[in-house]
Structure formats: structure tokens, C-alpha cells
Amino acid sequence: EPEVTQTPSHQVTQMGQEVILRCVPISNHLYFYWYRQILGQKVEFLVSFYNNEISEKSEIFDDQFSVERPDGSNFTLKIRSTKLEDSAMYFCASSLDSLNTEAFFGQGTRLTVV
Amino acid sequence: AQSVTQLGSHVSVSEGALVLLRCNYSSSVPPYLFWYVQYPNQGLQLLLKYTTGATLVKGINGFEAEFKKSETSFHLTKPSAHMSDAAEYFCAVSDTGGFKTIFGAGTRLFVKA
User: Fold this and answer.
1) pLDDT digits (tens, 9 = 90+) for A18-43
2) For residues B80 and B14, is the Cβ–Cβ distance under 8 A?
3) Where are the beta strands (DSSP E) in chain B?
4) A90 and B CB contact within 8 Å
5) Average pLDDT in chain A
6) Does the CB of B101 have a partner CB in chain A at under 8 Å?
7) By the 8 A CB rule, do A32 and A105 touch?
């Protein structure tokens, strides 16, 4: 069964460092997403991406964040200068169509900023 | 704008008892509704979804949910709880305008032996 894969599963980084979280969406999907879940809190939408551009972003997704689909298979989330409050589980998701009848989620990357 | 409210951050049931997790939504358009389960230190797994058609939706692991438009609800039920059902459950609504899924705060289900 096709699935969304995320690497690494856990990343520890020092405050102020850049970090890149990687995702491989399901191959025929066209819409890609990043969500964040701070420990013990709800899952929050960060950004959606279609046709090589951002479709929508939340207020969380500030200038420190960027997304890219560098090679037609990977979908990355970059945090330029990490802060302690960026520590969270980051989920990548993809869906086939814009109706979002089902977004398939990856297993997540746990980011710990120290 | 769509929103989701899950009633009860924690629910505790005995093994074999009925599971009922409540979810109410707000949407200006016909919604797509989802329930996801998250086991400790794992990702999100889709339990079931409602898009159109039959309002009673059956999912994996014996769970089902009923879409009630008049009550703007999408409660999740399971007739008989199992220890393995202990997890966090998230109700979610899809923004049918395109681009995001909006999650509720989650309900942690505890199952007592």
C-alpha cells in the first residue's frame, strides 16, 4: 500500500541552526502539506503546496519556514533558524485532489531544539 | 471557516464497554469529516471518513461514525472497547475550498481492564 514517508524520524538540533525535514509523498498525489503537533497539543496546519507553489499557509508559517519540491519526489520543510518553540512533531501529508477527500499522513519527524 | 470541537479531552471506559467520542463541527459548506487515531509516539492513521452518501460510516478496528447534519455532529463509536484501542483520537474537517484539514484538540481514550 502506498504511503507517505518522512525522514528522519527524530532530529535534534541546536537553537539557531537550520533544519530540513524530508518527505516523500505518494507518487501520484498532487497536493502536499505540512502540519505540526507540539507535544500534548492539537495538530496544526502549516502549509499546503500545489503546482510548485504555496497554496495556503497559516500564521505559524512565517519567514523562518520554507517548503520546496526539489526533484519531483521529495517535499521538504526548512526552518532557517530554529527556536526552542519549534520543537514538535512535524507531519507531512499528501492528497490526490484539491477536494482533500483524504490526506495521507506520514509517521512524522520529531524535532527537538536544544 | 470550518472548525471542530471535541467534547472531552479524556474518556475512560472499561474493556468491553461502549466507546463514544464526541465531535461537533462548524462548516458553511457540506463538510468532509474524518477521524484519525494516534498511538503513542506514532503518526496519524485514518480510522474513517465521511464525504458524501451514507451517513453511517464504518471504519477500521470496529469503529463507526454517523454524520448528523441537523446536529452538526460526527461522533465516533465502537460497541466493545479493547485494550488496544487506548490512543488519542482526532476528529477533523476538510476545507473543501482546497487546501487544509482542520483538527480538533483530540480525545485521549483510556481503556481499563
Assistant:
1) 999 999 999 989 999 999 999 888 89
2) no
3) 3-7, 10-14, 19-26, 32-38, 44-50, 56-58, 64-68, 73-78, 87-95, 100-103, 107-112
4) no
5) 92
6) yes
7) no
